[in-house]
Design brief:
mainly alpha
């Protein structure tokens, strides 16, 4: 069967191609915007965590913390030394 090209068929095919291109471009821009929003959320969360840590450190400036040994757990062995003449 031989099919003939017609002007309305050609315009309809071009219109379909253009619609597909516009839909794909819209979806592409939508996906890029979504990715950028996620990156911005992650960046803001890390910035808040950094600011909180910085605030905690600024409160402890000049304070002395004494860390004691736990009883019963010693990593240092006692060694007896003898004098040699």
């Amino acid at each position: 069967m031989i099919s003939q090209a017609s002007i309305p068929g050609l315009f309809r095919m071009l219109l379909i191609i253009l619609v597909v291109i516009f839909v794909l471009r819209f979806l592409g821009r939508f996906m890029v915007a979504k990715r950028n929003m996620e990156e911005e959320r992650e960046m803001n969360a890390s910035k808040r965590a950094f600011e909180e840590e910085k605030r905690k450190q600024s409160q402890n400036i000049g304070k002395t913390k004494i860390v004691g040994k736990k009883k019963g757990s010693s990593n240092i062995e006692d060694v007896d030394f003898e004098e040699i003449d």
